Amino acid sequence: MQQLLDTAEKIRTMEIRGAGRIAAAAAKALRDYVETLETSSFEEFVAKVEKAKSVLIETRPTAVSLPNAVMLAGSYNAETVEEARSQILDNATEFIRNADTALDSIGEIGAKRLRDGDTVMTHCNSHAALAIIKTAHNQGKRIKVYATESRPRRQGFITIKELSDAGIDTTLIVDSAVRYTMKNVDTVIVGADSITVNGALVNKIGTSQLALAAHEARVNFISAAETYKFSPSTLFGDLVEIEERDPEEVISKDKLGDMPDVKISNPAFDVTPSEYIDLIVTEAGAFPPQMAYVIIKEHLGWKLDKIG
Ligand SMILES: O=P(O)(O)OC[C@H]1O[C@H](OP(=O)(O)O)[C@H](O)[C@@H]1O
Prior knowledge:
The chain has helices at residues 2-12, 19-35, 42-57, 65-73, 81-111, 127-138, 156-165, 178-181, 207-216, 253-256, 292-300, and strands at residues 119-122, 144-148, 169-173, 187-190, 194-195, 201-204, 220-224, 269-272, 279-282, 285-287. With 308 residues, it is an alpha/beta fold. A seven-stranded mixed β-sheet has the order 3-2-1-4-7-9-10, sandwiched between helices. Strands 5-6-8 form a three-stranded antiparallel β-sheet, covered by helices on one side.
């Protein structure tokens, strides 16, 4: 259990971050836990596995990739410990493998939307969005990228490192320079933490500002998202919870100093309505956001209806 708790803590503190990475890390943690779980009682096995699943799911509330991964990796239909164990090991291994190949497919499909000489704006650090940009670059297209800083955690610094390591022409901007810069951009590409049944995109705080500015400037807006980032429970009316993180990420107590009454708000995500989204690139194809229902139905199935 200690290893699983360590992974949960790394997800909570964002040492492991990114909706896709936390999903794969959770699936791996569950697989390793189940592999060595010692008990001959099926009831005890079920209780312990369910407890482990909740520990992982409760680390971060917004990215649906996390509960989807835990449910897909941790599903079983068995009556004995060994049967259930072997099914979970197979399902988790399959989830991790599929998550990896999904990024390659998203790169291939999404790169078709970028032309030689295009300028892209991206936000935060999304492995799925970067897969598209890097694939286009590897195909020989000359792509320029504006990457936002993404306060407060500044994941934009990870993005510019990845892009410049790949040899891509990269410019860092502060978040408030998004609208000013949009006139130079052909396509915005961002990731996704959750996509709801009505095609709304829940992604890093500030994403909806990129979408608004893109809409105003008639710039394409694309989200790159594996199918396991669609939220089945929104089909049954649930709302996606927006994670509110520690105020210390915004400003330290020291710096606040003699203003103890000032309140800090630190929402980690925002919601972009489907009208502002041109395309969602998944490993199963590129869809308009209005097709979210079909993706949930065909790729996640009804068995996920109680989670996410
Ligand atoms: O799965 P990939 O595409 O890597 O990332 C998807 C999204 O996950 C991140 O969340 P955070 O930085 O963990 O809060 C960002 O919001 C990013 O757009």
